[in-house]
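HOLO CASE FILE
Compound: protoporphyrin IX containing FE
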Amino acid sequence: MKRRSLILTLAMLVSYLPIMEANSHEDGEHEHTPLEDQMSAMNKAWRSIRRQIKDPSKNESTLELVAKVKKAAQKSVELTPILAKEKSGAAKEKFMAGYQKGMKRTVALIGELEAALKKGDNAGAEAIVGKINDARKHGHDNYKPADD
Ligand code: HEM
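Model generated. Tokens follow.
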């Protein structure tokens, strides 16, 4: 009996091994860049901000979300997009300068968004959300891999 259960346990273990290996392989396959991590952090909060920006009764919660986006955007200024690795010399410098300018402008716009919400100016805040969306589109068109 004892021997049978030992054999069964071993058989189960062996049959699980390829699955475990497949899973760990899958996890390792998608390596996130530090910039992707910050972008993903921004994205979730940004979606909620867009949904509730018009609603003054949600301004307190919107401000908390804006603080999260601001923190991630500030960290992003110092990070390097994956496409920069394909460049060198003057082309790389130009690429990085453009990226940092776009990201800094976004941080500044997020500051304006905070100020408008603190004043209770939801119409103004909504207009700034539009500008940040434009900055995001421009940033992604120019500095993010197309297939991402
Ligand atoms: C509210 C503003 C923004 C949001 C919500 C946002 C969101 C995202 C998301 C969801 C990704 C994909 C992340 C992943 O694949 O895991 C991404 C990637 C990226 N974003 Fe943004 N983004 C914003 C603004 C910007 C701006 C202003 C720039 C540049 C000036 C920018 C540059 C990039 C780059 C370069 C990547 C690719 C990541 C890499 O190269 O490592 N993003 N962003």
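CASE NOTES: The chain is about 80% helix and 0% strand. Residues 1-31 form one domain.
CLOSED: yes
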